[in-house]
Amino acid sequence: MSHDRTIESREVPLGGLRGLRVHRTLPSKELPLIGAWCFLDHFGPTDDPMQVLPHPHTGLQTVTWPFEGRIRHRDSLGSDVVLEPGELNLMTSGDGVSHSEFSHGEPAPMHGVQLWVALPDHRRAGPAAFEHLPDLPRVEGSGWTAVVFVGSFAGRTSEATVHTPLVGVELSLEPGRHELDLAADFEHGFLGVDGEVVVAGEPVEQGALRYLAPGRARVALEVERATTVVLIGGEPFAEEIVMWWNFIGRTHDEIEAARADWEAHAPRYGSVEGHDGQVIPAPPMPHVRLRPRVRRD
Q: Which cofactor(s) does the record list (predicted)?
């Protein structure tokens, strides 16, 4: 049975050794998923640009949510979209897709989160899809406002397509204590984007992720100054996943085949225009067989 815990972030490069530095909290050794959310990177604020060449995905959805900066998304479906703060990009890989993400326009600070959602068996194969949602539901409470980018929160529902019960919210909190309603059958995570936040009585440093197990219908958040918090949650994901590099599957062999297809320029991934054939090559497979990710309670 899962229990509440705090996940500290670790710094990794995005898109290569000289890429934008990001702080990753999911997956962790202790906690591979929150609902179907299986990946959470927090980048910035930084003056370093985002420069991520075309790369593949299988078995997942990518969720890009910027606080500052503009990001140009191009993919193998022919999408070419500039993402602004307060807008959502949601890409569903299905059996295979590729995309790139680059800072756009005049140099400006970059700040945001990028997340992945593990797709269930009934949707992890099949066609890829892309959604750009510029108008998302907003709701206000006493001393807080929320933008609902995935799922439902406080009576408002995003139009973003999801395949398991999920929630994703940007919360803007004024100083003080705030009590918020939660879906009791969901597990939840709270990321303090730009300051410390006390979650259900537990202080959580900026950049760390506080996990709450299912069973809570309400939570108290406390901040000393105006603070942005990202809330994610969902019903516990029942399917075992094997996750490596940019792929999610169910077996080692499935991941190995996805990698081999990318290196062979297989049609399943298509191509992304505008990069003169440049792509991010797949790293070597590990010397051990990949196993499903499990929780460590």
A: Fe cation
Asked whether residue 283 is assigned to any structural domain, the reply reads: no
Q: What is the pLDDT of residues 188-228, one digit of tens each?
A: 999 999 999 999 999 999 999 999 999 999 999 999 999 99
Q: Give me the chain's average pLDDT, please.
A: 95
Q: How confident is the model at residue 17 (pLDDT cuts 50, 70, 90)?
A: very low
Is 132 annotated to bind a ligand? Reply is no
Q: Which residues contact 221 (CB under 8 A, 6 or more apart)?
A: 171, 173, 177, 178, 179, 180, 190, 197, 198, 199, 229
d(CA 69, CA 47): 10
The annotation status of 23 as a binding-site residue, yes or no, is: no
Give the β-pairing of 166-173 and 144-153.
antiparallel
Looking at the 3D structure of the chain, how many domains does it have? 1
| Residue 101 annotated as lining a ligand binding site | yes
Range of the domain at 205: 5-234
Q: The pTM is what?
A: 0.96
Phi, psi of 291 (to 5 degrees): -120, 160
DSSP 277: T
Q: Which amino acid is at 188?
A: H
The CATH number of whichever domain residue 161 belongs to comes to 2.60.120.10
Q: Is 57 annotated as a binding residue?
A: yes
